[in-house]
Amino acid sequence: MSEIANLYWDVAELYELDPRDMGDVAFFLDFALKTLGKNILELASGTGRVTIPLARNGCSVTAIDFSDPMLELLNQKLEREPELKEKITAVRATCPTSIWIRPLI
Description:
This protein is α/β, with parallel strands linked by helices. It has helices spanning 3-15, 24-36, 51-56, 68-80, and strands at 39-43, 60-65, 88-92.
């Protein structure tokens, strides 16, 4: 396992402790619902901070993350909200170093 992967073993549980609402979840939710439709590919999904609100709002989300600990925390959250399990597919994979995003114009 790489040093980066090992780092996530140490910080995954700390990731959830930041109580600040930076407005980013609302931004991503609004953006997704207005422009992307209901099928979402989320890269670096982590513990599901954005994934779960997307699913709660009717999106089907493929959540990709490199970190087993982050995905484990996402799966623990899904155990508490089993109705979301059919809407979220969590996948452990590396994210591409560059991606193409459809222009919004």
